[in-house]
Design a protein that fits this description.
- It is built from four helices and 23 strands.
- With 347 residues, it is mainly β.
- It has a single domain, classed as Beta-galactosidase, Chain A, domain 5, CATH 2.70.98.
- The longest helix is centred in the N-terminal third of the chain and has 4 residues.
- The radius of gyration is 19 Å and the shape is globular.
- The termini are far apart.
- The C terminus is likely disordered.
Length: 347
Amino acid sequence: MSSTSRLHGEHGNLDLQARGGMIGPADFALPGLSSINPLTCPQWRDDPGSKDWLPLIRNLCGDFVCAPYGAPRFSENLPDDWKRDPALPIAGDSWFHGHGPNNLWEVWVDQDNPASGGMRCRLPRSHPFSEISRRVRLLADGPGYEVDLSIIARSDVVFPLSLHPCFVLPDQPGSLELHVMTDGPGWTYPVSLIQSNAPVALNSRFASLEQVPLVEGSMLDMTSLPPEYPCESLVQIAAPAGEVKLHYVSEGYELLYGYDAGILPSLVIWLSNCGRQEAPFSGNFRTLGLEAVAGAFDLGPQISCSDQNPMAREGLKTCLRLAAGEEFVTTSTVRMRAHRGAGPEGN
């Protein structure tokens, strides 16, 4: 079985990875611009010590799916408000972010169309899912791709889900503009992520991405990235439109990310700007994860599937439910275009 299959289209190429079912790297073209590589795909798989890393981290690349999303068991360090009446863990899945991104998939390019292909993960018989698959197509009308996700339940299951693309975060402060259409109020992560370079206040609420509270009392504008300092943070917002725009100012293009917010009503934003010092991140890793979720952060099934977590108590859907034999499907799209400038036509 090939470890990588490459889709070829008029506007670019896209790799499908057997390791973890990840999509990327990508290489797209826009008239008048240099090659566009929008997905974060670090080249550390063969670094010393990599065999000791979580497979998800060792093979991290681009766009993947987390089912179930988050930690297999909740952290005892969570504030009491988050630990109220936890649900049961997912039987048969002890992986962080689920079996899929930590194990091998089948990948292929369609014989009759080099611009489309697929990926399939068959899960162990003890798992409540029997199969996770992704159909991937390069767009015909411009640079980008579309993904149809399918999850088939082997048994009745309640679980959190995340679509987890990781986009390039430039090194120049303020050179990436983040626009989330009809973004709602947000939450900061309830527990500490790392010991240093974690400036965002814990377990706090905010009204806008332009005013995310910091530990020292000021605000972080997460619509203008990256910040001028090392930073590792996770925030979650209600995003009922299911549309996100990234404007890469220096490169002169926009990336549009669309998904079904009726199914995945929140967006978890993972900002990693040289904040993590441990291997393999080593103080020089950058990415912007835009995680379309039905979940409460990546706190896992026990928290997300409880109707007593703080987000669920406010009416936000934080899990999905499938009956035995039921198939879940959803589609997401990533497309690029030249920057259209200011004004309504640029939105």
